[in-house]
Specification:
Blueprint (H helix, E strand, L loop, with lengths): L38 H28 L5 H33 L4
Helix pairs in contact: 1-2
Length: 108
């Protein structure tokens, strides 16, 4: 059988994926570092840091209200950091739940 598009064994021994185009090697999975933290560990570390940012922001607000602190800019910065971190974790949770719902829909 002829290969008019040159997709079968074009250019030597490299298999070609027609979606990637000629001359592009398929990606091989990267070797995992055995010392790398797991996804669970990364998630828990990030949750702890978000919790710490929220506690720091709450403490800064309480200090401002009680008069122990008078720098409003630092308090605003702390609350904005805590809010952004919380929104980021919430967006991650929503994406994970969407992925879980999608996996649940897969028929075996």
């Amino acid at each position: 059988m002829a290969d008019p598009l040159g997709l079968i064994n074009a250019g030597g021994n490299t298999p070609i994926n027609p979606l990637q185009g000629p001359g592009v090697r398929p990606k091989t999975p990267a070797a995992q570092d055995p010392n790398a933290p797991s996804f669970k560990q990364l998630l828990m570390d990030n949750l702890r840091s978000v919790n710490q940012l929220q506690q720091d922001a709450t403490q800064a607000i309480e200090d401002l209200q009680s008069g122990r602190r008078d720098d409003v800019e630092t308090v605003l910065l702390a609350t904005q950091k805590a809010d952004l971190a919380f929104r980021t974790i919430q967006a991650l949770r929503n994406k994970m739940m969407d992925a879980y719902d999608e996996v649940k829909q897969i028929r075996v």
